[in-house]
Design brief:
The chain is α/β, with parallel strands linked by helices and 151 residues long. The protein is built from five helices and four strands.
């Protein structure tokens, strides 16, 4: 079977991907190991805008790790205020790998993650409060890789 590793949950899983390859047993369905890595990415026109949009996810992850509870993804304004407080600036909010930035920065980051895992495919998840910002992020990532929308 092919394997997908959720780097957005545990960004230290390259060794698990290697174990998958070492222990892979060919079958009628799949002759060679095939790996996809799923990771978190957010792309914007500028690094500053990407960082600003990323505050929503940073707040949600920080609260999940410190309280064990999920919250609706907060607005950038709410998240910025939270992260400016001492409790919001815990190092725990930055432990998870987040590929944030411009098209080139995100492309370089995603390619590095793919190399780290030896993955043939990368799937991204983008968590931000604004649906339009999330949609634009996916468009920018697609453009960074020269992908065209399907008609």
């Amino acid at each position: 079977m092919p394997y997908v590793f959720a780097d957005f949950i545990n960004s230290e899983g390259a060794h698990i991907a290697e174990l998958y390859r070492e222990r892979f047993a060919p079958s009628a369905r799949l002759q060679e190991p095939r790996l996809m890595v799923a990771t978190w990415a957010l792309c914007a026109e500028t690094q500053e805008e990407a960082e600003r949009l990323g505050t929503s996810s940073r707040m949600a992850l920080s609260l999940l790790r410190t309280t064990g509870k999920t919250i609706p993804v907060p607005t950038v304004e709410t998240a910025t205020r939270f992260l400016e407080q001492p409790a919001g600036s815990l190092p725990i909010a930055r432990r998870r790998r987040m590929t944030i930035g411009t098209k080139q920065t995100v492309r370089d980051g995603l390619e590095a993650i793919a190399r780290e895992y030896g993955a043939e495919e990368v799937m991204i998840v983008t968590i931000t409060h604004s649906h339009e910002a999330r949609k634009r992020s996916y468009e920018l990532v697609a453009d960074a890789f020269g992908l065209q929308p399907r008609s």
